[in-house]
Amino acid sequence: MKILFVCLGNICRSPMAETIFKKMIAEEGLEENVEIESAGTGDWHIGEKADPRMRGHAEKRGYLITSLGRTVAIDDFKYYDKIIAMDDSNVQNLQKICPPEFLHKIEKMTNYSQEYSHTEVPDPYYGGDKGFQLVIDLLEDACKGLSAEVKTKIS
């Protein structure tokens, strides 16, 4: 199974989701069955590391974000089985560029939430520490739900 996490700039939420989910999948011993990457709908941060604040908060929780920013490519819609957006705006941006036959692959991250009732993973870029911490909390929760679904599909 191939999964692409998407946010606006690919420097906060989607690389964090990628990192969390890769760790979960590795802990389950499923890394050979699941390909995970992240991208952004905007092109401001191509080739850049994740936001230093996000990397710092990630490290405090035992995560190391190593991905570099990139934008969603048209070929991604064909290649990935799931394209998981962080918020409604990302979903709309993806739908605008997605070939119609692949629209069914676009989902929202919070669809997999188990403990939290947030309908979006908020962008922490203009906020403080609490925003970054909340994003990690929401992503850890949603990644657990996604992991459970992935395990049933590949086993």
Automatic annotation (TrEMBL):
<dbReference type="InterPro" id="IPR017867">
    <property type="entry name" value="Tyr_phospatase_low_mol_wt"/>
</dbReference>
<keyword id="KW-0378">Hydrolase</keyword>
<feature type="domain" description="Phosphotyrosine protein phosphatase I">
    <location>
        <begin position="1"/>
        <end position="149"/>
    </location>
</feature>
<feature type="active site" description="Nucleophile">
    <location>
        <position position="7"/>
    </location>
</feature>
<dbReference type="Pfam" id="PF01451">
    <property type="entry name" value="LMWPc"/>
</dbReference>
<dbReference type="InterPro" id="IPR023485">
    <property type="entry name" value="Ptyr_pPase"/>
</dbReference>
<keyword id="KW-0904">Protein phosphatase</keyword>
<dbReference type="InterPro" id="IPR036196">
    <property type="entry name" value="Ptyr_pPase_sf"/>
</dbReference>
<feature type="active site" description="Nucleophile">
    <location>
        <position position="13"/>
    </location>
</feature>
<comment type="similarity">
    <text>Belongs to the low molecular weight phosphotyrosine protein phosphatase family.</text>
</comment>
<protein>
    <submittedName>
        <fullName>Protein tyrosine phosphatase</fullName>
    </submittedName>
</protein>
<feature type="active site" description="Proton donor">
    <location>
        <position position="123"/>
    </location>
</feature>
<dbReference type="GO" id="GO:0004725">
    <property type="term" value="F:protein tyrosine phosphatase activity"/>
</dbReference>
<dbReference type="InterPro" id="IPR052995">
    <property type="entry name" value="LMW-PTP"/>
</dbReference>
